[in-house]
Amino acid sequence: MRAAVDISDGLAADLAHLCEASEVGALLEADRFPNDPALEAAARALRLDPRALRIGASDDYELLLAVEREGLAPSEELAREAGVPWSVIGQFTESAGVLEWNGRGGQRAPLERGGFDHFA
């Protein structure tokens, strides 16, 4: 599968849209997310779970890419050459519509699909 979507409503919400359109599921890996001290500090100050800030409603204006395995290394190299941050944060699965979060302790849980709702 190859696809891309901009993350303007939150990672979980836009990932759900991409999975719906492609009839796949996804597994996000907490350990693969880049360390972000500012996000961690903001979460503490707001008394929020850092995951809510990583995957919830937001205006990130980043791209979520679906890249086939053989395209990962060349894509990472292109990003590095362009000075663009690149992170592999999970994988797509054959379980259509099933979105999961694999936490730092290895515990899987359903991924909340919340994000910005334009019609609320």
Task: Give your account of this protein's structure.
The protein is of the alpha+beta class and 120 residues long. The chain has one domain (3-110): Phosphoribosyl-aminoimidazole Synthetase, Chain A, domain 2 (Alpha-Beta Complex). 35% of the residues lie in helices and 22% in strands. The chain has four helices and six strands. It has a four-stranded mixed sheet with strand order 4-2-5-6, with helices on one face. The mean pLDDT is 88.
Beta-sheet strand percentage?
A: 15-25%
Q: Uncertain segments of ≥5 residues (pLDDT<50)?
A: none
Tell me which CATH architecture applies here.
Alpha-Beta Complex
Q: Mind telling me the CATH class?
A: Alpha Beta
User: Mean pLDDT, nearest integer?
Assistant: 88
Largest sheet, in brief, is: 4 strands, mixed
Structural class: alpha+beta
Tally of DSSP helical segments = 4
Within the largest sheet, what's the order of strands?
4-2-5-6
CATH superfamily descriptor: PurM-like C-terminal domain
Rg, nearest Å: 14 Å
Summarize the helix and strand pattern as letters.
EHEHHEHEEE
